[in-house]
Amino acid sequence: MSAKKLYPLLLCAVDEIPSDGAKGFQLDKLNSIFAVRKDNSLYLYRNRCPHARLELNWMPDRFLDRNRDYILCAAHGALFEIDSGDCVYGPCPGTRLSPVAHTIIDGQLYLSEDPLDPQE
Q1: pLDDT of residue 75
Q2: What's the structural domain count of the chain?
């Protein structure tokens, strides 16, 4: 029997995520999430392309396009809006990334709930 994680769950200090950059977090062997810091805001998503069901990044913490304007799926070049997760280019129009509930307490980034629980 595996131990149940308690939430909120500390991920990192907000300052560990580069400004206009991203950072990934491995939750278990098969599941990961990532955070994007853009214009002093943080956005967290499951690391899963809605089209191919693959992880978005091909290298650690590489989730953004060259200009850092969009989240990029390295598998097929789909682009997603940072603030909404909406697909704006590629083979997955009308889909979006799955957002992850989070909170910031005293400069620390926490998961608010288990992002792998089924959504009602």
Answers
A1: 92
A2: 1
Instruction: Indicate whether 48 pLDDT > 70.
Output: yes
Two structure tokens written together for 11: 């991920």
Residue 117, in any domain of the structure: no
Domain, as residue range, for 20:
9-111
Residue 88: give its domain's CATH number: 2.102.10.10
For the chain, percent of residues with pLDDT exceeding 90: 78
Amino acid at 87: C
Whether residue 43 is contained in a domain is answered as yes
Residue type, 28: D
Q: Per DSSP, what are the bridge partners of residue 86?
A: 96
pLDDT surpasses 50 at 25 = yes
H, E, C per residue of 64-114: ECCCCCEEECCCCCCEEECCCCEEEECCCCCCECCECCEEEECCEEEECCC
